[in-house]
Write a structure and sequence with these properties.
single chain; about 55% helix; twelve-stranded mixed β-sheet; two-stranded antiparallel sheet; flat; alpha+beta
Length: about 850
């Protein structure tokens, strides 16, 4: 990794070494602390306050109790209403309830509240903390008091609880501040915060969680008042961002039942599901001894409890939650198998309460009208266990288009062999051991019961009521198999699934990609040839594998990308052979983004061709910013030097993690601000930056912050890089004016020193090169007029003309790029296929957004 410093000026009045001696600058750590203190003084103040109050009240060492001293600080129906301590909704925001909450408050204050301060300033963040916290607790207490007077179960159960919780105000301030975040981070903050808060409310049900939810809703309203329109504006996500958010929601549904087990727990409307993962502790040896001697009616239930006792059955009982986490991992990667697994696991979660209810002895007595309301509420409490899996299935159905990545057939076969083999080996091992010791079970087992018990070993304990009579072995060896064959099998399943997630059916082999890159490095493919390495393309090779074409097939149209990758003298033969290959497969071949030197070949074939854009080329060896035509670029370059902007030439693998994170955030921010679908094909995105052969050129401010990033695709001759083509361009919201001109000019100067022959600013779709002075413009053809119309129409959506105008600042030479096709009748199908190549995952809503943009 190398760094190019774009400025080397030295301050003329800098003090000499002797005058600086003894004035050691603060360490970077303390510089960061000082900057942080300047941004988040309220967060630091809250941290100090809660530490002091925890010492004064003693909650730093032990949990608060219901004593008189605590009641002077805590909010709740008892202290706030019954005792008349009207100030407690305020004081409850500054005292932690116990040592664990103290740690949580300190962490959240220094992170989430500090984020709110950075977004809306210290004063407004402080007001939001107090307003949402005080009003949220007050409304929560009043709601609790009112509901308790009507006998509502949750309010009656929590009526005598009290609240000491600064996180209520922190959550409210964060949601308030989210109105001022970028579209990307506003969506992330709100979605994930509400998801987590709702998870605690629905599963745990503690009154503190309810107060946090009320504060979050108040923060949403306050943020809307401060910045109207932020709730109504819904911005689209990139495909990766959408997958990440859905995966996060699925992971939260997996963690929720465990949250319900946290103290005090059990009050949330979805908390019934936690009962499916709880197990009553029993003395296994005593039960086995008594039931072996005298098998009474109670032994069936006692043996069922013994059968799920131990680490192995405990792990097996958590299997649905583990599989949901595995599902979330796969969804994040866009895997089709994860989508199917999500359907199956959530369907099982719907069935699970039905199988567990008989063992739970759930009964409802409603002898008079006063008992009817609590009975109905209890029924809803049980029925709510189905809400989350049903909602998850609906979510997966609605977003199923996001998860289209399938594993290759070989990987699926390998996965099936592993799973079936593991099941057969473990099941047979248990069966053999069990059948050899039929009399060493309590009660004595039959052959059929051993077979049923073998099935039981592989399912969670919640399904026990549908798998036959419970039998428990007394033999030590059989007991080990009894406890562990299920967990071992599902561990194999999880590991095999994670391995399956890494297998991708791209339609090309690793060997094909390696060979294609070898041919690229020999020469051929043109300035756009490296785009053929991107996902979505497959490769055709000549019989001697000395020539290649990158292409993709969409609706029977085989679209190539850039020039054929071969030696110049065999280009005609390569094109003809590829056309014959397409004919054999009943495909219509289309050569897209080819350069003018290949047009005689298509003339000989009797094909037609049309311009699809202009490639703008610079020549670093003659690059010079002197003269009036270079004034704008020269001014931008000089400004970058004056602002102490530095540059970094590197690759993704060599990036420091902090810069990689900034690049990802900058890219996602750019996508989130657009209602229109992402384009692909000849336009690279974040994933294409990670190729080790792709160079990155970054502009950094004096503090190391990312100002802008560009990516450069290499072109080769005889194994040496002779040109670069710009692809990915992003600039930060806080970047200086002219930063892109600065970074491109700096790149040209760098390439000049490295002997690079061509710097391509890539193609400008639907553009027409300017007419040279003194040259009469050609009469426009019907196709030229159509392309001109398309360019003007799409300009509001994608800014092709604006991009072309920007590139003209660099006084480039122009080279037209073409699309060649065999039959004009196929043009509608070709146009549709190329549109699908650029917008592979767009759906009706996104096309509607595109139409709205074009009509503005």
């Amino acid at each position: 990794m190398s760094t190019t410093d774009t400025q080397t000026t030295t301050a003329p009045d800098a003090p000499d070494a002797r005058s600086r001696k003894g004035r050691r600058p603060p360490a970077p750590f303390w510089q960061a602390v000082i900057r942080y203190a300047g941004v988040a003084p309220a967060s630091i103040a809250l941290t100090l306050i809660v530490i002091v109050t925890s010492i004064v009240t003693g909650t730093m060492w032990s949990p608060a109790t219901g004593g008189d001293q605590t009641m002077l600080w805590a909010a709740g129906v008892g202290p706030t209403i019954d005792s008349g301590y009207w100030w407690t909704p305020v004081t409850a925001l500054f005292v932690p309830e116990d040592p664990a909450q103290l740690v949580i408050v300190v962490v959240l204050a220094l992170t989430l509240l500090a984020t709110a301060e950075r977004l809306i300033g210290t004063l407004r963040a402080s007001i939001a903390f107090l307003a949402t916290g005080v009003v949220g607790i007050t409304l929560g207490v009043l709601l609790q008091w009112s509901a308790a007077s009507f006998g509502e179960i949750w309010a009656t159960t929590t009526e005598f609880d009290f609240t000491l919780d600064p996180t209520v105000g922190i959550i409210g301030a964060l949601i308030t501040a989210s109105a001022f975040a970028s579209a990307l981070w506003r969506r992330r903050i709100r979605l994930l915060t509400f998801a987590v808060v709702l998870m605690f409310v629905l599963y745990n049900g503690d009154q503190n969680n309810v107060f946090r939810l009320i504060a979050a809703l108040l923060g949403l309203g306050l943020g809307t008042l401060l910045r109207p329109g932020t709730v109504k504006r819904i911005r689209r996500s990139s495909h990766a961002e959408t997958r990440n958010l859905i995966a996060a929601l699925v992971a939260i549904t997996a963690i929720g039942p465990l949250v319900a087990l946290l103290p005090p727990g059990g009050f949330g409307p979805l908390s019934f599901v936690s009962a499916l993962f709880e197990h009553k502790q029993v003395d296994a040896q005593t039960v086995l001894a008594q039931c072996d001697k005298d098998f009474t009616a109670n032994c069936r239930l006692d043996l069922a409890l013994v059968s799920v006792d131990g680490i192995g059955p405990l792990l097996l009982s958590l299997l649905p939650l583990v599989l949901l986490i595995v599902t979330a991992i796969g969804l994040r990667r866009g895997r089709r198998f994860a989508l199917i697994l999500g359907f199956v696991v959530n369907a099982a979660m719907i069935v699970l309460p039905f199988t567990a209810l008989p063992a739970g002895n759930l009964s409802i007595d409603a002898n008079d009208i006063e008992d009817l309301a609590p009975a109905i509420e209890l029924l809803f409490w049980v029925a709510a266990a189905f809400i989350v899996p049903v909602a998850s299935i609906i979510l997966l159905i609605v977003t199923r288009r996001q998860f289209q990545i399938r594993a290759p057939r070989a990987a699926i076969v390998r996965f099936a062999i592993i799973i079936v083999s593991a099941f057969v080996i473990l099941a047979i091992s248990y069966l053999i051991a069990g059948l050899a010791s039929l009399t060493e079970f309590v009660p004595d087992a039959t052959i059929g019961e051993v077979f049923a018990s073998a099935l039981r070993r592989f399912v969670p304990a919640g399904f026990e009521s549908i798998t036959g009579t419970v039998i428990v072995p007394t033999s030590a060896f059989v007991s080990i198999l009894y406890q562990w064959v299920g967990p071992v099998f599902w561990a194999v399943f999880v590991l095999a699934t994670l391995q399956l997630y890494r297998a991708t059916a791209t339609g090309r082999t690793v060997g094909d990609e390696v060979r294609f890159r070898e041919l690229l490095k020999r020469g051929g493919g043109g300035t756009l040839g490296f785009m053929g390495t991107w996902p979505g393309n497959v490769y055709w090779f000549s019989e001697d594998r000395e020539a290649a074409v990158a292409y993709r097939v969409i609706n029977g149209i085989a679209i190539t990308l850039s020039d054929p990758v071969c030696a110049p003298e065999r280009a005609e033969r390569t094109i003809a052979e590829f056309v014959s290959f397409c004919d054999a497969n009943s495909w219509v071949p289309v050569f897209y983004s080819v350069h003018g030197e290949y047009l005689p070949v298509f003339d000989a074939l009797g094909w037609q061709y049309m311009s699809v854009g202009e490639e703008t080329l610079m020549h670093p060896q003659t690059f010079d910013m002197a003269g009036k035509p270079w004034q704008k670029v020269r001014q931008a370059h000089n400004r970058g030097i004056k602002e102490n902007i530095t540059t970094l030439w590197t690759t993704w693998d060599e990036l420091p993690p902090i810069l990689a994170t900034q690049i990802t955030a900058m890219s996602e921010q750019w996508v989130s601000e657009k209602e229109l679908p992402e384009m692909g094909f000849t336009l690279g995105a974040l994933e294409e930056l990670k190729d080790p052969d792709v160079a990155l050129y970054l502009a950094l401010d004096p503090d190391g912050g990312l100002q802008a990033i560009t990516s450069w695709l290499p072109s080769y001759r005889d194994g040496r890089v002779v040109g670069y083509t710009i692809d990915f361009m992003r600039r930060g919201d806080a970047s200086i004016p002219g930063i892109m001109e600065f970074i491109i000019a700096s790149a040209a100067l760098r390439m000049q020193g490295e002997g690079i022959e061509v710097l391509s600013l890539s193609g400008a779709p639907l553009a027409t090169k300017p007419v040279v002075d003194g040259e009469a413009p050609a009469d426009p053809t019907t196709m030229d007029r159509l392309l001109g119309f398309l360019g003007r129409t799409l300009e509001p959506a994608y800014g092709f003309a604006s991009l072309f105008k920007f590139k003209s600042k660099f006084n480039p030479t122009y080279e037209t790029i073409y699309m060649a096709y065999p039959d004009p009748v196929a043009l509608p199908a070709i146009g549709s296929a190329i549109g699908k190549a650029y917008l592979p995952d767009a759906h009706a809503r996104e096309y509607l957004a595109l139409a709205r943009t074009l009509m503005k």
